[in-house]
Specification:
alpha/beta; globular
């Protein structure tokens, strides 16, 4: 396996080149699925960085360093883990809303409408002034220029974007802003004494994580931390839209509570949880929680030594810093969807998405990696820390790994073999039923990656931390 992507991650943790020797990679090389982007390589690299960071924390606890093993096929499958969900033996429906997708515009461009959430769907239908029906939407989009429709839908509170090539994105003001940023940042934001890891028999046992994230990327970070023993409290609210299958996928290992932050008493309950946590992870637009006293600076005052993790769509600088977005929207504006459509015209006219949610899951893994690096820094140096990255920065990292030639991806199967899938799956008894899902990818020499709690419905738990064991 080409280790270039992994070697790019080593400096964020202060590791030397020889750390890659602690990782054994097994399985195939790209392409494992029909895309030119090196998803197996980047998934394996991100998960290797997670595993090495887990090893560092285990060494802090015990003095022992771990080696790890990663199956590249399993790592790649984890980039679309919702696809493999079964509830009580039946396939979980993961189909997107019927009006969500790509549409040709009047000026020969393509427009992407993100319509999985009802509020975003309503915004798009209001701008287009049509009912929620695909033919009517297509006819309406055909009367708009691509750029004008992109801006109108964003202004209305929707999400999506005009399809661009990679070259166009490189010249776009936001593309240039993203290019000016590192892949991620791990920065000290406050002073406090060094903190030893709490006692425990797993790498992250008795560390507390508040998870105020949605969809896939941020929740994957918290799920990954739970995989190694952290107590994770997912925070949502009854009025916040969600997609059930995504919660099944990312909910492993978590408690889940409802707190409406518009209510002062419930905001107070969240602040109480924050005072006693180690990690506060949020995936909203930059500064969107600041007016509720939940900015990284305020949280560092509330709980000196906190690790704040902040993820957004397009980065914290540039004209789109406050713009909402998703994995699919980043694919659309950055050239990924255009390239996928060029390479697979037999799949249909126009731009296409790659066959995974690579940016989402890669971002989640890198968030978890950065969190554990910051926890190690806190133990050695003290201080509160901010881990900051965006979907667009991770998408750029994926693109920078280069592409496979068209001849290399010809005839690649769209599915993994059944024998491999059976090796990668496990089952859990949940309040929703018997859930079959992908098992953790990384195998360690000393500790077992596992979830101590099953996925639960949103709001299932009281907003109270379990006692440290």
């Amino acid at each position: 396996m080409n280790l270039a992507a992994l070697r790019e991650l080593l400096p964020f943790a202060g590791w030397s080149e020889d750390r890659v020797q602690d990782v054994e990679f097994v399985g195939g090389l790209d392409p494992l699925l029909p895309t030119s982007f090196k998803i197996a390589e980047t998934a394996s690299a991100a998960l290797a960085a997670v595993g090495l960071a887990v090893s560092d924390l285990w060494e802090l606890r015990t003095g022992k360093r771990q080696t790890l093993r990663i199956d590249t096929g399993h790592a790649t499958a984890s980039l679309r883990s919702t696809k493999y969900l079964r509830l009580d033996g039946a396939k979980v429906n993961t189909e997107r809303n019927t009006v969500m997708g790509m549409y040709p515009t009047r000026d020969g461009r393509w427009s992407y409408l993100h319509c999985n959430f009802p509020n975003h769907r309503a915004a798009a239908m209001k701008v287009l002034n049509v009912p929620e029906e695909r033919r009517a939407v297509a006819d309406a989009v055909a009367n708009w220029d691509g750029l004008a429709l992109e801006e109108a839908i964003i202004a209305a509170g929707g999400a999506g974007g005009m399809v661009r090539s990679a070259a166009e994105w490189a010249q776009h003001p936001q593309g240039r802003a993203v290019a000016s940023l590192p892949l991620m940042e791990i920065v000290k934001i406050g002073d406090s004494p060094p903190e030893d890891l709490p006692d425990g028999d797993r790498p992250l046992t008795n560390l507390r994580v508040l998870d105020l994230t949605r969809v896939l990327a941020g929740p994957t970070c918290a799920r990954t931390l739970a995989e190694h023993g952290a107590d994770v409290m997912k925070v949502s609210a009854p009025h916040v839209p969600f997609i059930p299958y995504q919660e099944y996928d990312t909910g492993h290992g978590k408690l889940s509570t409802h707190l409406d932050l518009r209510d002062e008493s419930q905001l107070g309950a969240l602040l109480d949880l924050a005072r006693d946590c180690d990690v506060f992870s949020q995936g909203y637009r930059p500064e969107s929680l600041a007016n509720r006293g939940l900015s990284p600076a305020k949280l560092a005052e509330l709980r000196p030594g906190i690790i704040c993790v902040s993820m957004c769509a397009f980065g914290h600088t540039g004209p789109w810093a406050a713009r909402r977005g998703f994995d699919t929207a980043v694919q659309v504006v950055s050239g990924i969807a255009a390239r996928q459509g060029e390479l697979f015209p037999e799949q249909g006219e126009g731009p296409q998405f790659y066959p995974v949610s690579a940016i989402d899951y890669l971002t989640g893994y890198l968030m978890a990696f950065g969190t554990m690096v910051a926890l190690r820094k806190r133990a050695h140096e003290g201080g509160s820390w901010l881990v900051r990255l965006s979907l667009a920065q991770v998408g750029r990292w994926l693109q920078q790994q280069g592409e496979l030639e068209k001849t290399e991806i010809a005839g690649v199967a769209p599915e993994f073999g059944q024998a491999a899938m059976e090796q990668w799956k496990m089952s859990s008894d949940t309040p929703m039923g018997h859930l079959t899902h992908l098992a953790p990818v990384i195998q360690f020499s000393e500790t077992s990656a596992r979830w101590a709690r099953p996925s639960v419905p949103l709001g299932h738990s009281e907003p109270v931390w379990p006692a440290r064991g």
